[in-house]
């Protein structure tokens, strides 16, 4: 399999798995036990979450950056991989700002697999970029 096809397969897998993880708890709301949901709601009620349009604008901007980086890496644009690294950094900041989450086991598994595929895609994109910069080196 050509490296570009590996990259594209990993990117598509990451997106499909992430969508599956997001849809999992919506489609199967009882996958998280009721007692766990109540504890989580109590935890969130004691926490001051940001309100207004800023979180909505930030979320939409993040999703657009993510889609742009996936597109950029799929068509091998020079800005695709650096943007993917920025999105990865923003994901870590977003996780810190949003705080704890309650996931079902299935949603957690799909989300984790998506993150592994995303990280692998970034690694393959980096290698492809290095191969383009140094085409005559031995790759043994």
What does this protein look like?
The chain has 140 residues and is mainly α. Helix content is 76%, strand content 0%. The mean pLDDT is 86. Helix 1 (3-27) runs antiparallel to helix 5 (105-133) and helix 3 (54-74) runs antiparallel to helix 4 (80-98). It is elongated. The protein contains five helices and no strands. The two termini are 17 Å apart.
Secondary-structure element string: HHHHH
Which oligomerization state do the chains in this entry correspond to?
A: single chain
Q: How would you sum up the major sheet?
A: none
Shape: elongated
Structural class: mainly alpha
Total number of beta strands = 0
Supply the number of helical segments. Answer: 5
Mean pLDDT metric = 86
- Our measurement of the CA-to-CA distance between the termini, rounded to an integer number of angstroms, reads 17 Å
Point out poorly predicted stretches. none
Strand content: under 5%
Radius of gyration: 18 Å
Helix fraction bin: over 70%
Detail the topology: elements first, then pairings.
Blueprint (H helix, E strand, L loop, with lengths): L2 H25 L6 H12 L8 H21 L5 H19 L6 H29 L7
Helix pairs in contact: 1-5, 3-4
Write out key terms for the chains shown.
140 residues; mainly alpha
Q: What's the gist of this structure?
A:
The protein has about 140 residues and is mainly α. It has 5 helices and no strands.
């Amino acid at each position: 399999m050509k490296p570009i096809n590996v990259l594209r397969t990993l990117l598509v897998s990451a997106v499909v798995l992430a969508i599956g993880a997001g849809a999992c708890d919506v489609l199967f709301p009882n996958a998280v036990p009721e007692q766990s949901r109540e504890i989580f709601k109590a935890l969130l009620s004691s926490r001051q979450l940001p309100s207004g349009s800023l979180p909505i604008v930030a979320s939409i901007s993040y999703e657009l950056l993510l889609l742009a980086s996936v597109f950029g890496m799929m068509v091998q644009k020079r800005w695709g991989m650096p943007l993917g690294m920025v999105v990865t950094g923003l994901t870590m900041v977003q996780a810190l700002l949003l705080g704890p989450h309650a996931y079902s086991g299935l949603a957690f598994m799909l989300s984790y697999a998506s993150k592994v595929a995303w990280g692998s895609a970034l690694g393959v994109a980096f290698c492809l970029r290095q191969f383009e910069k140094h085409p005559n080196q031995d790759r043994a």
